[in-house]
From TrEMBL, chain A:
Location within or outside the cell: Membrane
Originating gene: rodA
Keywords assigned: Cell shape, Membrane, Transmembrane, Transmembrane helix
InterPro entries: FtsW/RodA
Organism: Psychroflexus lacisalsi
UniProt xrefs under Pfam families: FTSW_RODA_SPOVE
Upper taxonomic lineage: Bacteria, Pseudomonadati, Bacteroidota, Flavobacteriia, Flavobacteriales
Protein's recorded name: Rod shape-determining protein RodA
Length: 416, 622
C-alpha cells in the first residue's frame, strides 16, 4: 500500500480534489438557507453532498487497496452485475420525473446508470485486449458494439436519452484501438448534417452540400477518387438532411424537439421551454469578469435557475465567480482530460490503456455535453458535470471510474 | 493520427467554451440589466403630495389614500379571467385589453390595470389578490379638496400619459402628475421625490433580502406645502358672483403683485376630477364647447379692453405732453375725425377735461388726445411705436410671466402691424386709422389678468410686480427675483394723480356713481366693449361685454381688479357691481349693499348666451 501511494498520479487526484471542493462551494451557494446553519446538516443538500464526498473518499481508499489484477479478472462478472442492475430497475426501480432510473433506500436513492459506465469500460477493455479480437474485422466490431449497446438500450428504455448519449464516448477508445475511420467520419458527418440542416433548412443545405462534395471530388488529385464512394456520401448526406424534419417531428418526443428549437433560436418562449436555458444564460452572462461574489449571485440566490445544484451548477460558477471562475473550471477539466490521456497512452498493458481511454472519454463527453448545454450550445440533456454537480451516485461513479485507472496506472510496470 | 483525436477534441472544446463564455460574460452587457430585472424588485414609496393653502393658511387641497391594481405581465400566471374581472369590476374584455397594453408597455415593469380604488374596495380586494400572481396593489395618494372653488387655479392630478413616460422621464406607468393650474406649475415642488427600495427576490416572488445592503435605495421625500396668494374667501365669493355669467375676475394686491383671486366662469367643482370618475367627468368637461369650463377665461380669454383703456390713453398723452390738464374739449355726442367718419359718444356734460373726461368716459376727448400723441411724431409709424412702448410697460401684449401654465399675450399693435394691414408703402395710413385704440375698441386685445395688472400699476402710480400665485413654499416666503423685482412703467409718477382722481370721480358723479361702497374710497373705470361672433359664417354682433377695472382704497391700494362679464352689456351693469362687491368683501368682509348683491346673485346671463345658439334672429343690448 505505501508503495502504491507513491506511484499514484497525485496530479490527477489534486485536480479532482479541487473540482470537488469548488463544486461543493457552489452547491452550498445554490442550496443554503441561512449561513448560521451547520454545513453538516444532513437534511440539506450541501450537507448530504459533504457526506457523499466523505464516503466517496473511503470508496477510493478501498479501490486503491484492491489487487490491480482484480479488475481485469472480474471485468465480465462486474459487467454482468451491471446489466442485471439495469434490468432490475424495471422490477424494483423508483420512478422520478417519468424516468425509472433509481433504486430507492428510504431517504436515499442510487442511480445504477452512473456505475454501469465503469462496468462497460472494464468489459470493453477486457474484450479488446483479448488477442483474438481485431477491430478492423466486422465480427469484433459487432461484439464491441454489443457490449456498449446492451446497457445503452436498457438506459434508453428508462427512458433517459441523456445518459444514453454518454455511451457514444466509447467510440473514442474503439477508434484508438483500430476501429475504421468510417465510423467516426460517419458520426461527425451525421452530427454536422443534422445541425446544419436545423440551422439553415433542407432547401439551403442540400444544394450547398452537393456542390461541396462535387468540388472535393474534382480537386482531389492525390488519391484516385472512387466515384461510387462520393455518390454514396452525397446520397447519404442529402437523404439524411431530408429526414431531419421527420426525425424532429416523429422520432423525437415533443419536449426533445422543443430543446432543439430553443437551441437554434426557433422558439423564444422564455416562460416555457426556453426558461431553463434563458435563466442559465442570464445568470452566467451577468457574471462579468470576476462575478458577483460567492453567495451573492442574484439569480442563484433567487433560485431562478432550475436544477442549479445538479445539471446547471456551472451557471452558479458563471454568476458568482465570473469569467475568471468559468475559465478556471474549463481549464481544470481540460488539464484533467489531457492528463488522463497522457496516463492512458503510457500504459504498456492494452487492458489498462483501453480502460484509461474510456475513463478520459466518458469524462470528456460529460464535460462537453453539460457545459455546452448550460451555455446554450447544445440542447437540454440531463447529465451532471463530473465531480461538480450534486449527487452521490454520480460522484461515486466518477471516483470509481478514475481511481480504478489510477490504480492500474500505479501498477503499470507490474502488469506488463 | 488516431492518438490525436482526443487532443483535438479537448482543445477544440476548451477553445469553443472560452470564446462562448467570453462572449456571454464580457462582450454582451445586456444580461446585467436582465438579471437585475429578474432578480431585483423595486418597491416604491410614494410620498404625500404637498398640501395647498390659501394666503391666510386655510387648507384648500389635502390628500386621501387611493389604491391602484398593478400587474407585471411576465409574472402573471394563468388565472381565472372572469373571476378577477368581476373582482376588479371590469369586463373580461377590458381586463384583457389592459393586460395587452401592459405587455406592450413593458413585460417586466408594472402597469396599472385599474386605477384608484377606494379604501373600501381595497380592503375587499386585498384578501383575494394573493391568488393572482403578478398582480399587486400600489398605494398612492389622491387629492382631497377642502374647497368647492378654484378648480382652474388648482388644476388636477392624473395618471401620466404614455408619451410622458417614454421620454425616459421621472415618471412610470401609473404615476400621478399635476395637470393644469398650480398642480402642473409646481408639480416638482408638490410631488416630492418617490423613494425606492431594492429587494433581491426569488423565483416564487418572495423578497429575500435588501439588494446590495440597500446601496441603491433612496428615501422618499415629502412634497412641499404651498401657500398660494389666493384669498380663499374672496375667491369663493367671486365664483359665487359669477354664477350664471361667463368671464373672469382677476384681483391683485398692488403692493406685491400677489393674485388675490382669479375667477373664471364657467368653472367646475374640483372634486369632479378625483379618482375613478375623473376620466369620465373630464371628458364631459372637455367636450362642453359652449361653456368651456376647462378654459381659464381670466388668463386665456382676450377681449377688447374698452373704456378702461382710456385711463392709459390719458397717461400716455400726459407723459408725451400733448395735453394740458385744464384744457377743455367739447363733445357734441361724438367726434368727426375724417370726412364722414365719426366716433359716437354718449350723453354727458360738456366740455370735459382730463379728470371729467375719465369720469364721464368721453370718447371724443380721448380720441383727440390719442390723435395728438400719435401725430406728435413725424410719421404715424413712429407715433404708434412710441405709444406702444408706453402701453407695453404696463405689461400689455405680453404673457406677464405669472406662474400658471396657461395664458395669452393678447395684442398690442405696432407700426409693422398697421403697415401690413394697410399695405404700406403702397398706401399711406394715418393716426386716424387707429383712432379706436384710444377708447380700447381698436386692435388692442387684452386678457383680464393683463388689465388687472395695469390697474395695479395705476394704483401704484407707475410700477408693479409681476402677478404671481405662489406665496410660500413650506412656510418660506418666495424669493424669486422674477416676482420681487419692481417693473417700472414709462409714465412719470405725477401724471397718475389726475387719472386716479378721474377714476375716483367715476364713483362721485361719473358712470358708476350708484356703485359707491360706503366707507371705502374706490377708484374705477367702466367699460363696454362691442364684440362679434360668427353664425353660419356671418359676422354677427352680440350684446356688449361688461368691463370694469377698480382699485381701493384710493390712497393706500390694497386690491386692484379687472372684471369681464361676457355680454353683460354696459360696464357698471354687471362688471361694475361685481367689482365693488369684491372690494367690499375683501376690505370689509361684510356686504352692506345687500340689494346690489342680491341683484347679482339672482341675475344670470344664460338667456343672453343661448341667443346665438337659438338659430333664430335675436336682439342685442336689451
Amino acid at each position: 500500500m505505501p508503495k502504491t501511494l507513491l506511484q499514484i498520479d497525485w496530479l490527477t487526484i489534486l485536480i479532482i480534489a479541487i473540482l470537488i471542493g469548488f463544486g461543493w462551494g457552489n452547491i452550498y451557494s445554490t442550496t443554503f438557507v441561512s449561513p448560521d446553519e451547520s454545513i453538516l446538516d444532513l437534511s440539506k443538500i450541501y450537507g448530504k453532498q459533504l457526506l457523499w464526498i466523505f464516503l466517496g473518499a473511503l470508496i477510493g481508499v478501498v479501490i486503491l487497496a484492491l489487487e490491480s489484477k482484480f479488475f481485469e479478472r472480474f471485468a465480465n462478472i462486474i459487467y454482468l452485475f451491471a446489466v442485471l442492475s439495469l434490468l432490475g430497475l424495471f422490477a424494483f426501480g423508483k420512478t422520478i420525473a417519468g424516468q425509472t432510473a433509481w433504486y430507492s433506500f428510504g431517504a436515499f436513492s442510487i442511480q445504477p446508470a452512473e456505475f454501469v459506465k465503469v462496468a462497460v469500460a472494464l468489459a470493453l477493455a477486457k474484450y479488446i485486449s483479448d488477442l483474438d479480437n481485431d477491430l478492423s474485422r466486422f465480427k469484433s466490431q459487432f461484439k464491441a458494439f454489443a457490449i456498449i449497446g446492451v446497457p445503452l438500450a436498457l438506459i434508453m428504455l428508462q427512458p433517459d436519452a441523456g445518459s444514453a448519449l454518454i455511451y457514444l464516448a466509447f467510440l473514442i477508445p474503439l477508434y484508438r484501438e483500430g476501429l475504421p475511420h468510417f465510423y467516426i467520419s460517419i458520426g461527425f458527418l451525421t452530427a454536422a448534417i443534422f445541425i446544419l440542416t436545423l440551422k439553415f433548412g433542407f432547401t439551403l443545405f442540400a444544394p450547398i452540400f452537393g456542390v461541396l462534395i462535387i468540388i472535393v471530388y474534382l480537386f482531389n488529385k492525390r488519391n484516385k477518387p472512387k466515384l461510387w464512394k462520393y455518390a454514396l456520401i452525397l446520397l447519404f448526406g442529402i437523404g439524411f438532411s431530408y429526414s431531419v424534419n421527420f426525425i424532429l417531428n416523429s422520432v423525437l418526443l415533443p419536449h426533445q424537439k422543443d430543446r432543439f428549437d430553443v437551441l437554434i433560436g426557433e422558439t423564444n418562449d422564455i416562460k416555457g421551454s426556453a426558461f431553463n436555458l434563458y435563466q442559465s444564460e442570464v445568470a452566467i452572462g451577468s457574471g462579468g469578469w470576476t462575478g458577483k461574489g460567492w453567495l451573492k449571485g442574484s439569480q442563484t440566490q433567487g433560485r431562478f435557475v432550475p436544477e442549479q445544484h445538479t445539471d446547471y451548477i456551472f451557471s452558479t460558477v458563471g454568476e458568482e465567480w465570473g469569467f475568471m471562475g468559468t475559465s478556471i473550471v474549463v481549464i481544470l477539466f481540460t488539464l484533467l482530460i489531457l492528463r488522463l490521456f497522457h496516463l492512458a497512452e503510457r500504459q504498456k498493458n492494452q487492458f489498462s490503456r483501453v480502460y484509461g481511454y474510456s475513463v478520459m472519454s466518458v469524462i470528456f463527453v460529460h464535460f462537453f455535453v453539460n457545459v455546452a448545454m448550460v451555455i446554450g450550445l447544445f440542447p437540454t440533456v440531463g447529465i451532471p458535470l463530473p465531480f461538480f454537480s450534486y449527487g452521490g451516485s454520480g460522484l461515486w461513479g466518477f471516483l470509481i471510474l478514475v481511481l480504478i485507472f489510477l490504480k492500474l496506472d500505479a501498477k503499470r510496470k507490474s502488469l506488463n | 493520427m488516431r492518438k490525436l483525436l482526443p487532443i483535438i477534441l479537448v482543445s477544440f472544446t476548451a477553445f469553443l467554451f472560452l470564446i462562448r463564455l467570453f462572449y456571454l460574460q464580457i462582450m454582451d452587457d445586456s444580461y446585467d440589466e436582465v438579471s437585475t430585472n429578474i432578480s431585483v424588485r423595486k418597491v416604491y414609496d410614494y410620498p404625500q403630495r404637498g398640501y395647498i393653502y390659501d394666503r391666510n393658511g386655510e387648507l384648500m387641497v389635502g390628500n386621501q389614500p387611493a389604491y391602484d391594481v398593478m400587474a407585471v405581465p411576465l409574472e402573471v400566471k394563468e388565472f381565472d379571467t372572469l373571476e378577477l374581472a368581476s373582482l376588479l369590476k371590469l369586463t373580461p374584455e377590458r381586463l384583457k385589453t389592459q393586460l395587452e397594453r401592459a405587455w406592450r408597455y413593458s413585460p417586466r415593469l408594472a402597469s396599472v390595470i385599474t386605477p384608484q380604488l377606494t379604501k373600501k374596495e381595497y380592503a375587499y380586494l386585498q384578501e383575494r389578490m394573493h391568488k393572482y400572481q403578478g398582480f399587486y396593489i400600489q398605494k398612492r395618494s389622491l387629492r382631497d379638496y377642502d374647497v368647492k372653488h378654484s378648480a382652474n387655479i388648482l388644476g388636477y392630478i392624473a395618471e401620466v400619459g404614455q408619451g410622458e413616460i417614454s421620454e425616459k422621464s421621472y415618471y412610470q406607468s401609473g404615476d400621478l402628475k399635476g395637470k393644469q393650474g398650480v398642480e402642473e406649475q409646481y408639480e416638482e415642488v408638490l410631488r416630492g421625490e418617490r423613494g425606492v427600495k431594492h429587494y433581491l427576490r426569488d423565483i416564487h416572488n418572495k423578497n429575500i433580502k435588501p439588494f446590495k445592503e440597500g446601496k441603491f435605495d433612496t428615501v422618499s421625500k415629502k412634497g412641499s406645502d404651498l401657500h398660494l396668494t389666493i384669498d380663499a374667501k374672496l375667491q369663493a365669493y367671486g365664483e359665487k358672483l359669477m354664477k350664471g355669467k361667463r368671464g373672469g375676475i382677476v384681483a391683485i394686491e398692488p403692493s406685491t403683485g400677489e393674485i388675490l383671486s382669479l375667477v373664471t366662469a364657467h368653472s367646475y367643482d374640483p372634486d369632479l376630477l378625483v379618482g375613478r370618475k375623473r376620466s369620465r367627468n373630464f371628458t364631459e368637461l372637455y367636450y362642453d364647447t359652449i361653456q368651456k369650463p376647462l378654459y381659464n377665461r381670466a388668463l386665456q380669454a382676450i377681449y377688447a379692453p374698452g373704456s378702461p383703456f382710456k385711463a392709459l390713453t390719458g397717461l400716455v398723452a400726459l407723459q408725451e405732453g400733448v395735453v394740458d390738464l385744464e384744457e377743455d374739449f367739447r363733445c357734441n355726442g361724438g367726434y368727426s375725425y375724417a370726412r364722414g367718419v365719426r366716433m359716437g359718444c354718449h350723453n354727458h356734460p360738456s366740455p370735459v377735461q382730463m379728470v371729467t373726461g375719465i369720469a364721464h368716459s368721453c370718447n371724443s376727448y380721448f380720441a383727440q388726445i390719442y390723435r395728438r400723441t400719435i401725430e406728435k411724431y413725424d410719421t404715424p409709424q413712429k407715433g404708434i411705436d412710441v405709444w406702444r412702448g408706453h402701453m407695453a410697460s404696463f405689461g400689455l401684449g405680453d404673457y406677464l410671466g405669472y406662474d400658471l401654465p396657461v395664458g395669452r399675450a393678447g395684442l398690442l399693435p405696432d407700426a409693422d402691424y398697421y403697415n401690413r394691414a394697410y399695405r404700406y408703402p403702397t398706401y399711406q395710413w394715418y393716426a386716424s386709422a387707429t383712432l379706436s385704440n384710444a377708447i380700447g375698441q381698436g386692435e388692442v386685445l387684452t386678457t383680464p389678468i393683463q388689465l388687472a395688472n395695469a390697474t395695479a400699476a395705476i394704483a401704484n402710480k407707475g410700477w408693479f410686480y409681476r402677478p404671481h400665485i405662489i406665496k410660500k413654499v413650506d412656510d418660506k416666503s418666495i424669493k424669486e427675483e422674477k416676482y420681487t423685482t419692481k417693473q417700472v412703467t414709462t409714465i412719470d409718477k405725477e401724471h397718475f394723480d389726475p387719472i386716479i382722481q378721474g377714476m375716483h370721480d367715476v364713483f362721485n358723479y361719473g358712470t358708476a356713481k350708484f356703485l359707491r361702497v360706503p366707507g371705502i374710497e374706490v377708484c374705477g373705470k367702466t367699460g363696454t366693449s362691442e364684440n362679434y361672433t360668427k353664425i353660419d359664417g356671418e359676422r354677427v354682433q352680440l350684446t356688449d361685454h361688461s368691463i370694469f377695472i377698480a382699485f381701493a382704497p384710493k390712497d393706500d391700494p390694497k386690491i386692484a381688479l379687472a372684471v369681464f362679464v361676457e355680454n353683460g352689456y354696459w360696464g357698471s351693469r354687471y362688471a361694475g357691481r361685481i367689482s365693488t362687491l369684491m372690494i367690499e368683501k375683501y376690505l370689509k368682509d361684510e356686504i352692506e349693499r345687500t340689494d346690489l348683491e342680491r341683484w347679482i346673485l339672482n341675475n344670470t346671463l344664460e338667456d343672453e348666451y343661448a341667443k346665438p345658439y337659438s338659430g333664430e334672429p335675436f336682439k342685442i343690448n336689451q
